[in-house]
From TrEMBL:
The lysine tyrosylquinone cross-link (LTQ) is generated by condensation of the epsilon-amino group of a lysine with a topaquinone produced by oxidation of tyrosine. This is Lysyl oxidase homolog. InterPro entries: LOX-like_protein, Lysyl_oxidase, Lysyl_oxidase_CS, SRCR, SRCR-like_dom_sf. Mediates the post-translational oxidative deamination of lysine residues on target proteins leading to the formation of deaminated lysine (allysine).
């Protein structure tokens, strides 16, 4: 076995993976020793099967059912406790329980009630080891069936029964490629080498006798690569014959659709075998990375990723809500029957490896607009999710709270090794320090914004950026004082800070260490989206008398020519509409400034928590503003929420301001400043543009959906809006058509 430093090794942890079932999930627990019969029911010799059932429920909750003596049955809720729930959840591969239910909350079960008066300590490996009245001994009815709610996080390395059943000592948890060519050791990602599996305290090889391209596909997929390549075995044979090899796995027989090598049928080498791989050699594979991870720009152009599928709202590369393009408009996928096979098809067509997780229940934020697909049933070999069988959606089938998402396997790039944050109160915050060459140093904070901070948090694997910090004297716990990077300007989508624009030579006005850039990261973020159709439905023109506009003028809500008007006589022509702003993210949207710095506006009698919360612009054909308005967030609050979500923010009585996840803030068309002053605008065809959080002051998981545009026709008396859409809702082709649209030739909307 070879000893090679880990930083040049491509590895993949055993994914926290499992195939979701819509109504019933089935899990196998680990083997358990026989307990004393006096304190608990006599366990079966086979592993106890446990499943979640019932309706309505999510994949991590439900009525508990046990399989005993060939029959499924329930547990009575008498004496049930959170300790019992912990044992059951861990038995099914979840890290812990967050709650339990009584009185058949998930519906009444059928058949036997297997256990009653169950009392666990909480540390037992299986529910059979807990005290109870014994198997089948119960005085309950199914009205008392117990249920559990498990924390939606998997135990690392837990292997589900509906994927594979392996003997514990032969469980494969980590796989890596060990490069042999000197040049390959230095380049990231590592795409070719000897396949090795973690074994005891070292690494072992796999015998290549009977090795197929399907096996290679699985290995490449779990290491983050969408495709496999042929490898020059003769070159490796010469090299590996001179090496000492230890073969832990004798043969592998993958179908090619598995998401992990552990899911394939494996034969392990016998400990006393004299020749574990007679006539063979260690398995070697070569993988083709997706365009995002390629060094060769020529190959990048040839390897185009799908333009009909995208991931939205994820904090890390290769994760997000799945959206598909149909009739030039993007829409989501419903999570019914959503599993790792379908998720892997999406991951591979986007240039990543197989899926690490198939997420349900809008876990990476809810989409807006249409839901196109339901009950997607890919076999795993399809080139695109569009080729998989699925059902079309009817309105009662799905809602956006059921949007499907994925976390894909991505190649190990080692990007987190060249950046660190220090001095913070937790691992999620601190002053940014980067490695340039062999030297560590700070980053100039001039021009440091949420977008740059977003890239830092992504590079470190810490989620989203909550705050971009420009003074970090209170985090001064490092002896690094030299500034090594300045002029950093990112788009926000880069994988590392080094991919952003920055000065060739460091130049910083405030070069002192206390002005170094810092970040505060978070696993979740808000995501604001405007309801485009409501704007289109509520638009109208009002000629408002000047004597009613004194407060609006004071808050700078009128165009510049208003200052020259003959106050209080005359009027201003206002383009009015309602704005309904939804938070579809995973964290509440709160103003950047704390309430101590909110500004009181006596004229309207309210506080402004953000100076500029929204931009309203009217643009002509070449994109020049012909009129503009802006909206201070004089009141960020929950006007209404989706079912099951409670309002948390209210402006009255100097209350907390914000927008809760799953709620929306409605600025009605008839309130002050909810307009664009078009008094000076000539008749013609225009584009109405609304941008929320325009300066990216508050962190969001997705800034591409902050803008909304409409085609606008104004004839000097009336106004029409059509094609109102969120900035990222249309295909590129449809967006180009929208920009070129000459306007309507009549007053009817076609």
């Amino acid at each position: 076995m070879q000893s090679v430093s880990d930083h040049v090794l491509q590895w993949a942890p055993l994914s926290l993976w499992f195939l979701y079932k819509h109504i019933t999930l089935l899990y196998l627990s680990t083997p358990t020793p026989s307990p004393p019969p006096s304190t608990s029911p006599q366990p079966q010799t086979e592993r106890l099967k446990v499943r979640l059932a019932g309706y309505p429920r999510k994949h991590n909750e439900g009525r508990i059912e046990l399989f005993y003596k060939g029959e499924w049955g329930t547990i009575c809720d008498d004496d049930f406790s959170i300790a019992n729930a912990h044992v059951l959840c861990r038995q099914m591969g979840f890290v812990s329980a967050t709650g339990w239910t009584h009185s058949a909350k998930y519906g009444k079960g059928q058949g036997k009630i297997w256990l009653d008066n169950v009392m666990c300590g909480g540390g037992e490996k299986s529910i059979e080891l807990c005290k109870s009245r014994g198997w089948g001994n119960s005085d309950c009815t199914h009205d008392e069936d117990a249920g559990v709610v498990c924390k939606d996080e998997r135990i690392p390395g837990f292997v589900d029964s509906n994927v594979i059943d392996v003997i514990d000592e032969n469980k494969i948890e980590e796989v890596r490629l060990r490069p042999v060519v000197a040049m390959a050791k230095k380049k990231m990602p590592i795409t070719e080498g000897v396949v090795e599996v973690k074994f005891k305290d070292g690494w072992a090889q796999i015998c290549d006798i009977g090795w197929t391209i399907k096996n290679t596909r699985v290995v490449c997929g779990m290491l983050g690569f969408p495709h496999e390549r042929k490898v020059n075995k003769n070159f490796y044979k010469l090299y590996l014959e001179r090496q000492k090899n230890y073969f832990h796995v004798h043969s592998v027989a993958c179908l090619g659709t598995e998401v992990h090598l552990a899911a394939c049928p494996l034969e392990f080498s016998k400990p006393n075998a004299t020749s574990a791989c007679s006539g063979g050699m260690p398995a070697v594979v070569s993988c083709m990375p997706g365009p995002l991870f390629m060094q060769n720009s020529g190959l990048k152009k040839k390897l185009k990723i799908s333009s009909n599928v995208r991931l939205k709202g994820g904090a890390r590369v290769g994760e997000g809500r799945v959206e598909v393009l149909k009739d030039n408009e993007w829409g989501t996928v419903c999570d019914d029957r959503w599993n790792l096979l379908s998720a892997s098809v999406v991951c591979r067509e986007l240039g990543f490896g197989s899926a690490k997780e198939a997420l349900t229940g809008g876990r990476l934020g809810q989409g807006m607009g249409p839901i196109y697909m339901n009950e997607v049933k890919c076999l795993g070999q399809e080139k695109s999710i569009m080729n998989c069988p699925f059902k079309n959606i009817t309105s009662e089938d799905c809602q956006h709270m059921e949007d499907a998402a994925v976390r894909c396997n991505v190649p190990y790039m080692g990007l987190e090794n060249t950046i660190r944050i220090v001095g913070g109160r937790s691992t999620y915050e601190g002053r940014v320090e980067v490695q340039v060459g062999s030297k560590w140093g700070t980053v100039c904070s001039t021009g440091w914004t949420t977008k740059e901070a977003m890239v830092v948090c992504r590079q470190l694997g810490l989620g989203y950026s909550m705050h971009a910090i420009t003074e970090t004297w209170y985090w001064d716990s490092s002896n690094v004082t030299e500034m090594v990077m300045s002029g950093v300007k990112c788009t926000g989508s880069e994988m590392s800070l080094s991919q952003c624009q920055h000065h060739k030579t460091v130049s910083c006005q405030k070069a002192a260490a206390k002005f170094a850039a810092g970040v505060i990261c978070s696993e979740t973020a808000s995501d604001l989206v405007l309801n485009a159709s409501l704007v289109q439905q509520t638009v109208y023109i009002e000629d408002r008398p000047l004597h009613m506009l004194y407060c609006a003028a004071e808050e700078d809500c009128l165009s510049k020519s208003a200052a020259k008007a003959n106050w209080p006589y005359g009027h201003r022509r206002l383009l009015r509409f309602s704005s309904q702003i939804h938070n579809i993210g995973r964290a509440d949207f709160k103003p950047k400034a704390g309430r101590h710095s909110w500004v009181w506006h006596a004229c309207h009698g309210h506080y402004h928590s953000m100076d500029i919360f929204t931009h309203y612009d009217l643009l002509n054909a070449n994109g020049t503003k012909v009129a503009e308005g802006h909206k201070a967030s004089f009141c960020l609050e929950d006007t209404d929420c989706q079912e099951g979500v409670s309002k948390r923010y209210e402006c009255a009585n100097f209350g907390d301001q914000g927008i809760t996840v799953g709620c929306w803030d409605l600025y009605r068309h008839d309130i002050d400043c909810q307009w664009i002053d078009i008094t000076d605008v000539k008749p013609g065809n225009y584009i109405l543009q609304v941008v929320i959080n325009p300066n990216s002051e508050v962190a969001e998981s997705d800034f591409t959906n902050n803008g909304m545009k409409c085609n606008c026709k104004y004839d000097g008396h009336r106004i029409w809006l059509h094609n109102c859409h969120i900035g990222d809702a249309f295909s590129e082709e449809a967006e180009r058509r929208f920009e070129k649209y000459p306007g309507q030739l009549n007053n009817r909307i076609s």
